[in-house]
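Narrative summary of target 7.
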Amino acid sequence: MRRNRRLTAAAVAVAAISVLATACAGSGENTAKDDPNANTTINFWHGWAQPNEVKAIQENVARFEKAHPNIKVNVVGNINDDKLNQALRSGGSKGPDVVSSFTTSNIGKFCSSGAFADLKPFVEKSKLDLEKTFPKVMLDYTQFEGKRCALPLLADAYGLYYNKDAFEKAGIKEAPKTYSELLTVAKALTKTKGDGYEQLGFMPAFHGYETTTEHYLGSWGPEYFDKDGKSQVAKDPAFAEMFTTQKKLVDELGGLQKLEKFRNTFGDEFGAKHPFHTGQVAMQLDGEWRLGMAKDAKTPFKIGVAPMPVPDSQKDSYGKGYLSGTVMGIAPQSKKQNAAWELVKFMTTDTKAVVEFSNAIHNVPSTFEALKSPDLKIEPEFKTFIDIAQNPKSNTAAGAVNGATYLNTIQDFGYQYEKGTETDLKAGLDKLAKQIDTDIAKAK
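Modeled conformation, tokenized:
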């Protein structure tokens, strides 16, 4: 489950920039001297906190310890990136040997600063064929500029949830496949009440749950940077098209002020009173974890799941989506990196381990073998996310040396554009590109 989405990514990025900049840079060589066959104990820090998640981690660790009886694993959970970064900076024997993070947008910073150790020598020594093991997008978001400092450990795929009962009442036969269809369906499903809504077809505002700029952009698949590392937000038409499309959704579904007033009535994103659960919103952009949460909340309607719509000009690409996920690596200060690698390799590539973890916490498997495993518990709705994860046109946000900072800058521009403070889109994107380039130059 993604608990550190855009609402917390800004804080995470600031922490990453200030802390990771001081991290010990990796040499790119395997200098680990420990014997992976010797009796030892390693520390594994992760961010999961829910009882079912913690239990699933412990069960996989138990499988690992059975396969590697000489290696004991001390597991520490509920570790966010801020805590992790502080530990990586300070080092010490009580710090982590194996690390995981939910924040794929910080991989550029993790890799370029040396905050996570270079995994290339470990991969080569193990003769692990990454291209045959993991889908391309997952490989992309666990490396930066050719340096691999992490491997994927389960993935998140974003799609469109919809209230089947509301669709039936409105005479709508299927989920929208393009953004023009999304607007039409959203308007048909919207029921006003006084100066507000009884039911909103779709919450398009950037402050809405999961309706962030990068998640929307997954429908376009833009080029964030050129080959020289310069921002393409003003040159790739996908950005202007996305902002124009989102602004039209906001305006035609009632305007930002009315939408924001309604949004303030929503329950917690990860609680039972989420607006999709309660029927306040008939369609919701969200990740695969929402399926289990909606069923746990005992929603009183049938749930449909489909890929997010795509631009009208890309109708043939329908089925793709935005991907992110959990990443796993090795602390560069660890004196037990060879033993640590055995755990990383097991957790990320052992098919049974990946499948059992996926089944337990309802995230998308991150290896080809796990995705097609007969032991994978696939509900009809969940299969949508499996398909999105394997779609060759699915994508993610590009990595950068300053982590998620550039994404936060794009998001901040989105806030200004949707409320009309920024009126000239072209000029605004030109300025935005210059700001991103300046921030990245400062971070190098």
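The first helix runs from residue 6 to 20.
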